[in-house]
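Dear support,

I submitted the protein below through the web form. The confirmation email said the job was done, but the results page showed an empty box. After a refresh the structure appeared. I'm attaching both so you can tell me whether what I see now is the final result or a partial one.
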Amino acid sequence: MKLMIAVVGCTLALVSAATQFSDAPTGFDNKTNGMVDDVTHQADQVKFEEVEEVREGLGPLYNAQSCRECHQTPVSDAPNFAYVKIRNRGSKAATSVVVNAFQNKPQGQLVYPDDWQPMEPSALPANDLPPGPTEMTVGPFTWTPSTSDSVILMAVSATGDASNLAKFSDGKSISDWRLVPHDNNIGMRKV
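What the results page shows now:
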């Protein structure tokens, strides 16, 4: 049984294959990336941050109060929320599924477990997951990014398919560049 996880945001973009864009600049500064002029961008930003109410369409399929609730830049030195999307790539149902969440310690070298601290809660159970394309979102996990570097690490385990994190404790450690690419149950993202 194999599980695959991906640390994801709530972003969905539909773009024609014929459209050619340059890479977006890194970071978020509330300025246009050049796709639209500043006036259009600011008008769109107002709509993006607008808070919706039930009479305006808030309902059973969309329960957040604005677009911005799913699309947020992490705020340093303040509580933030992380979610992980998981799916089962195996041929049998994944049972007793648990997701563990960590954030790096400031100025750490990303060596597990030494340079990581658990988020709150440190683990959340998930429903049994059938094989195939069905995805499930697990969270929220609360974490506080530092002003320097912030990296999150998510690991999912199920009966008969534990992540490799369990192999490293009691004086055993491993660098992220060796751990993450060799375990499809682990996802890591610099944010």
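Response: this is the final, complete result; the empty box was a page-load delay. The longest strand covers residues 116-126.
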